[in-house]
Queue: 2 jobs
Job 1
Amino acid sequence: MPDNKLKIGIYELTGCAGDALLIIDCEEELVNIFKAANIEAFLMAKSDNNDEVELDVALVEGSVSTEKELEELRKIRKRSKALIAIGICAGLGGMQSYFLDDKDWAKNLKAVYGGVEMIHAKALPSKPIGDFVKVDYFLPGCPIGKEQFLSTFARLLAGNPPELFRFPVCVECKWHENDCLLNKNILCLGPLTAAGCGSVCVNHNLPCVGCWGPSEEANRTAEYKLLLEKGYDPALIKNKMANFSGTSITQFFARLKGETK
Amino acid sequence: MKKITIEHLARLEGNGGVTATIDGNVVTDVKFLVNEGPRLVERLTLGKTPEEDVNLVPRICAICTLSHKYAAIRAMEKALKVNVGPKVKLIRELMHLGEMVESHALHVFYLALPDYVGFPNAIAMASKFPFEVKIALEMKQYGNHIMKTVSGRYIHGENPVIGGFGKFPSRDELVWIKNRAIQFMPFVLKTVKLFAELPYPDVPESETLYACCHPPDKKYGIVGDEIILSNGDIIDVQDYKNLTNEFIVPHSFCKRSQYKGKPYSVGALARVNCLGERFEGEARKMYKKYFNARWTKNPLFNNAAQALELVYAFERIPGVVDEAVKLPDEPLVLYSQKDGKGAGAVEAPRGTLFHAYEVTKGLVSHTDIITPTAQNAEDIERYCYITAQKLLESGQEEKIKDRMDLVIRSFDPCISCSVHTVQVKRAPEEDWKTKIAALKTDVSPVIIGIGSPGHSDDAVGLELARRLRGQGVKEVWIEDEALEKSGAREADERRPLLFLDAVDFGERPGKITIMPLQHAAWNAVLSHRLLPLVTSQISFDQLKNSYILGIQPASLEDGEQISEPVRLAMEQILEQLKN
Ligand code: SF4
Ligand code: SF4
């Protein structure tokens, strides 16, 4: 029987499956998710996956790192009205996009696999999906957060675009009434990192390591200046940010540099 | 030729699958493929601080996130000479047990059970087993809850760090965890009964070697500074390479392991085989009641072993909490060491996980990570091969697909192994010609003729070798020479070896089949002459690179004559191998 429920597909490229697993870990809500929409494909949760059907929304986890994945991604894009990158691997490239220079990447690939040519899939330097297809929205996080995922899902059902936090982790940290770690001379990436996790690391007395990727708020220059004023070396900050920012690190710091001039 | 493909399989390392190739009456190849792209984690951690490494490596796999974190922390603490206090050790054990409960509950009830009770998936199974499905979900939630309480998040929590924890769980949180564990016990015991009594088929049965962490104090456990093998060997974790001997196969981005040239298995079944006698309490009673010789050779019993470990975990958790709440929270252990080298091992739910690092001037200068699936890959292939070959021999070809599924899934490579497509394909006739051509493109193979003269078709390998020599083909050996002069070994290690032999596949006489030598070693139908040669004369690297070209004989009776169909086959082979 035809119904007017949204058709949704959830796909995994190169990553750790954390974003897909997080959706499964929504346990109680998972049943309702399956009821409220038609989940046409979700490799981790079901076996009767339909890989032909036209989708209203495709959620894609992971970066592109083989030719096969690129092909798959293009097919998904073609049959989806909207495409959402879930997690920083899909959105920014993730830790595997650390080697920004293709030659550097090739050298490192060789160091791991010797000269052995893989017969099943040609490896590509890992890139975020937005480098190849149009991405309509990006849910950040490593992995994405349950709250943001569920609110995004609910908004989609109502026909609304996702609405994400446009401020850094610091704001959430204040909500949790933590003592600022920078005052204790601990380098915390909270000021530069997108919020959404609930400042969970700082709540555990640990510095934010930037796993939600760079924050896009208007005030980021001031935040960055604050770190510089504290005496932190820009190279050190950049190195730490690079761990989870994937290919976005270059533009992020180029913009910061421009703005701090 | 036929191809059975099981795609989209192993979540642990990404998407994977199994392909089995059948040529007539013989399985010529089985490949466990890991399709996911390379992430180069071992390279991108270089130049990072030890703390950054511990942040990054759990992202290898969301399902074993805490095992990765714990193994990395153990390795780093070894390298940097950090000694943590008793409470840190207990809370780490708790988070590790939480991960095991989560993973085992999901695997036994949601992925394995539907196969045995005849349902396509857990949701469908709920109609007949509503209670099991509900409790299993609660168990999984409980495991998740422990992981979140201790690590800070369901997935990739950052609270466990080198030197301890950012913050300890509160007394109330710990007591809640303890009480909930006690409530689960009656159901957990039923779980063992259910899984130990399932009708596991005999077919994949075959001896293997098991390995796991060797916990101290004669206790059962899931970490250790040594590795124990089911043959009694003990290996220091710092010497883990003596166990894992990694190598690369061209069909997978996940590296492989063999111990002394043999595949070995890790995981719950390995642990129960190596350490089962150490169980205490209810786990011991259950172990005594159910463990038997079939558990030592049938990978399907991994489900039963996981159920036993659930009992262990639920009995151990209250003990851990009782000890932990008596101790004060310990401050982070700070360190000043800037250089060092160390390996750490933990038992991830699906087997032993190694992390090894070298730190130079405060930055990581070497990283080595060996996952359970990498270690199991060889045995997964081998058991799939045995399954396919035995079912084929007993005329149950239609069962191969499902049975291989069962075998792979029992290894619990990861959770999306619940979903995959299986295909059966006929591959082209005369596949051997294509394979030989491919072999010859790199470097020409060393050819070794095997056989015994005076037994009609059994001389075909020798005869072929002689004629190839006559035609001026270099590097052709004849069985005895290869044995005497160690000719095979002296040949360039990188060159493939190609054995020519009469092989009884139960096929039409003259049928030519090529298969990797590695499979031949597992295949009972193959010539027994080959085995001593293989084991005594060939290095492991060569074994991986060698093939047997078999010709189905018409007769092996006494006699000088080679039969007509085999002669024709000989001509074809000569044509293919010359120049
Ligand atoms: S973004 Fe993080 S959680 Fe998601 S796939 Fe990548 S590594 Fe895993
Ligand atoms: S690293 Fe930062 S963004 Fe990631 S969970 Fe911790 S506080 Fe949140």
Job 2
Amino acid sequence: MGRSVIWGALALAILWSLTSADMGLEKLPGAGPRLTEFLGRMIPPDLSIWPEVLRGLAETLRIAILGTLFAVILSAGLAVLAAETLVPPAIWRPVRGLLAVIRSIPLILVAMLMVGAVGLGPLPGILAITFHATGMLAKFYSEAIDNVAAAPVAALESAGASRTQQLRWAIWPQMAPVILRDTVFRFELNLRESLILGIVGAGGIGLYVQTYVRSFQYDKAATVTLAIVGLVLLSEALNTALQKRFS
Amino acid sequence: MTAVIALDAVSHCFDGEAALTNLSLSVQPGESVALLGPSGAGKSTMLALLDGRLRGWQGQASVLGNQLSATRSPAREIRADIGFIFQEFALVDRLSVYQNVMNGRLGRMKSWPALWGRFGEQDHICVTRALQDTGLSDLAHRRADRLSGGQRQRVAIARCLAQDPELILADEPVSNLDPAHAERILGLITGAARSRGIGVIFSSHQPDLSRRFADRILGLRDGEILFDKRSGRVTSEDTDGLYHGASAATGLRVVS
Ligand SMILES: Nc1ncnc2c1ncn2[C@@H]1O[C@H](COP(=O)(O)OP(=O)(O)O)[C@@H](O)[C@H]1O
Ligand SMILES: [Mg+2]
């Protein structure tokens, strides 16, 4: 039964989207020439604004670094409370529920709330990234804790190792690669997501995208876009290189 | 001489099922004892009890002169004196062979320097010797999860030897080894019993090897001691009875 129902539902959903939404299809023919005109105005990019672009990139990078750092610190504590193997269900169940709720709130929404709370600038961006990333990192960390094999820990205990020695030489070696991999992965996401924070006034290079597109300075917007693409590609390459080491 | 192991009327149940029933036993320093018995006989349970890891058992048990508790682990110094070779090896997969063997030394060190990976000269000497004795010197820097089953078992044995224990408890220590390695390892741990006067108990499914290397054989079945004899006096009836049960053994004899 399952398959035909799924295909039927999919077909219905597509049909509904095509027919019910007022897509304004009639605007499509005019878009082509307009887009080529924009593209024409983007080329050549105005590279003279590079000091501003660099400053924006640097601020985005700082937001991502500090947001990740604070998220790591918060997650370390929350992960313990979310670990099935460390605390009773009465604790880890609600904590995991809370983390799921945190994950489900879009970053841009959190950023707008933070701007409302602390004003414009990089601080609301850092707070938003911290909050948003903690929902994911604390869950990942708690899974790393739960996946630690008990037998090697028991073997060290049996050989007379102290509790801290067991942590260092049986638990940590099992958790460290997982935690480092998850953290680097989350840092890359944080960097990507913080690129748009400036659009709502939460700091970083997003502000320039907003400014130049709104004021029709497409040659400058092009430069900012190039810088963003460069940064994303760079962080992706770094992530890939690092991931290979965590096995 | 005080016994390295003294059990008096020890019993244990898992969820109401008897796993050990009224065991009494005494092992002297320098003595090596083989524990024979079919799967489920209670060998692992008895060894875990002697290692101080079993909870909720009844009776009296003392190891190396220390009374064991059914509710708590022994103190760190006592745990360091009891070496255990695990049936499932229990290695830390992502660490090197060398560090896994070094882990056996942790109980002999101060807690703090070891956290930075700073180990003493004596510790390095013990690890190097244990690796040599188990034929692992060439694999010292290989990660533990890149080894064969037999190699992993030898790492588990080397970790126990590096610990320099007063008592060795070994749960099927040669089950994954080829005959040559099995003889070498059993020779090593029972030799340690004789030369250094420590106690050794190992469980095994190989009656012939056990008879050759152990001074004494303990036949365990359904959690009870069926026989407890000098190795030379154990007959094939003893071992047949152990694995096939009395009725099955006579049945076989009728057929032949
Ligand atoms: N953790 C456990 N929980 C419940 N039953 C167990 C547990 N460990 C062992 N048993 C039972 O106790 C009996 C003895 O097991 P074990 O000591 O492992 O035997 P052996 O090592 O001789 O094969 C078996 O019937 C086994 O099913
Ligand atoms: Mg067993």
